[in-house]
Amino acid sequence: MRIVFRWYGEKFDTVTLEQIRQIPGVEGVVGALFDVPVGEVWPFDKIMQLKQKVEQSGLKLEVIESVNVHEDIKLGLSTRDKYIENYSQTLINLSKAGIKVVVYNFMPVFDWVRTDLRKKLPDGSEVMEYDHRFIEGRGPKELVEEFRRGSQGFILAGWEWSRLEKLSEILKMYEDVDEERLFQNLIYFLKNVIPICEKVGIKLAIHPDDPPWSVFGLPRIVTCKENIERILRAVESPCNGITFCIGSLGVNRKNNLPEMIRYFGNMGRIHFVHLRNVKITGEKMFYESAHPSFCGSYDMFEIVKALYDVKFDGYMRPDHGRTIWNEKSIPGYGLYDRALGIAYILGLWEAVNKMVAR
Ligand SMILES: [Mn+2]
Q1: Of 62, 153, 189, 270, which one is least surrounded by beta carbons within 10 A?
Q2: Ligand 1 centroid, distance to 155 Cα (angstroms)
């Protein structure tokens, strides 16, 4: 398991590379070019600038999260071929810079969804919460407003305000896109980009839908074992893989996380893992807790054990953390709680490793 840490770049992140370098076990960062509009080619020189910056601090840049997929591809519009061509060129440029894994998702309109970005727990820490009653009781515009407010001016991955200004137009275009249609559009995309990945040696890793159910009636397909298997089987290639995000998949209690890790891990298709714990508080209600098992609803030992059992040697990062110790940071992406998460996961890994060796 190779530990990495998400970093939004000097311009947007409150956490520095020097700080990340001092977390035990971390060998690299997961980065992206957040100022290239979705759909455009990532310029090679800009990728190299980011890589050199990272390397100067003694860290590696081998994982990109994310190269977002243009809405026209998800919608299956006639303009999609142009955007797929751009996507392919971005992959070629990334490979030239030594990138090994590229994360993407196929969620229509909205990326990850929470209904409160700064919920206060009794101990004073702040967490991100999801309560489906908000989705049922209010509209998409109000959700965007909630995100804007909660961001407190920080960047939020996947939430580009300029794109979301045209919210009603985009939502209208999805009126006749159901799950099957969205699935076919994903396969069309993969059939075009996976051969490029094979050629240049990049592994694509689709991120599950977060949360793994429909919001505002929009289709969501990367939600469960059966659907993920269908995606992987549709284009049989080691380059067509997944980001196993336990925070996203696990809030649907039907998803047996250790079992899914064993299944897809043994297929060799897990290229990246996101570890975090989640406290499920009701039907389609949860908040993102601290990483240890007793803080949330997951058995983190069983999850790490499953990764160990499939000899997982890909990249792993701690996922969203709480905001603690008065840190001012991008919601979910402060330094302190994610660093605590890594220390905990390393402890579990060492314990499993030594117990097995006995
Ligand atoms: Mn994730």
Answers
A1: 153
A2: 16
